[in-house]
Design brief:
The chain has about 250 residues and is α/β, with parallel strands linked by helices. Helix content is about 40%, strand content about 10%. The protein is built from eight helices and four strands; from the N terminus they run αβαβαβαβαααα. It has a four-stranded parallel β-sheet, sandwiched between helices. Helix 5 runs antiparallel to helix 8. The termini are far apart.
Length: about 250
């Protein structure tokens, strides 16, 4: 992976990596372009997804893809700089990418999601699996929880909703030059967010932060990525198994 998150592969690299593999797997980072308070960039979710994909590509024989950088960030619309596309558009983009990959001989796709608001990605994967295609969504909440515990992240996944300890830690580890001063005093907790879909983020935070970024560290970011990389092994095995995507038929 290049430093920008754009793979530097040539077509020969892809051909060589796939040689001898019974099944090839591509990994697609899906991020967003939305506010992350005053100290993290709009592209934070994309940067996190690309960091995960970079680690996966270093540890497994997978094909890294360039990121989808704009997705479903409608809850952040009140903040300048946020850009969204509709859920049907994101659904179509991922489905088209998977179809294109299959035509070129890569029949399995892992969608590495960096933005919690991309609810539609779960539908994309479920529908693809029902059609007999090989697709997975990573990381699952259980993977994040295991990574949180392994890394010593103090904030629960409920509290660490946006621009909090996890995202700040991953960027402090991978792109520290992009983390601006101010995260040390930007904590904002709003655990009861039952009306989020109706009110948007503005109903729960003035700063755009929901979480405790003050607890972030580069060491935690490194440990988070290591845990996720280990957890990916089960996904890779599932998608490269002879019966995956066929319901065992």
């Amino acid at each position: 992976m290049g430093g920008s998150g754009i793979p530097a592969d040539t077509t020969e690299d892809v051909r060589a990596r796939g040689a001898g593999l019974a099944r090839q797997v591509a990994v697609l980072p899906v991020g967003s372009y939305e506010q992350h308070g005053r100290f993290l960039p709009l592209a934070t979710d994309t940067l996190v997804a690309c960091a995960v994909v970079g680690e996966l590509a270093a540890a497994y024989p997978v094909h890294p893809l360039p990121p989808v950088t704009v997705s479903c960030s409608h809850e952040h619309a009140a903040w300048p700089g946020t850009v969204s596309i509709s859920a049907p558009t994101l659904h179509a983009v991922v489905r088209d990418i998977a179809a294109s990959l299959r035509r070129s001989g890569v029949d399995a796709l892992v969608v590495v999601n960096g933005h919690g608001g991309n609810y539609v990605l779960g539908n994309v994967v479920q529908e693809a699996t029902a059609r007999g295609e090989r697709m997975a969504l990573f990381p699952a909440p259980e993977d994040w929880e295991a990574a949180r515990l392994r890394a010593g992240v103090a904030t629960s996944l409920l509290t660490d909703m946006h621009a909090g300890e996890i995202e700040t830690s991953v960027l402090l580890h991978t792109r520290p030059e992009l983390v601006r001063p101010g995260f040390e005093a930007a904590d904002s907790v709003a655990d009861d967010r039952r009306h989020l879909l109706s009110l948007g983020m503005g109903g729960y935070t003035d700063s755009g932060v929901i979480g405790r970024p003050s607890l972030g560290s580069a060491a935690k970011g490194k440990a988070l990525l290591a845990s996720l990389t280990e957890a990916f092994g089960a996904y890779f095995a599932l998608l490269t198994d002879g019966d995956a995507g066929t319901g065992g038929r």
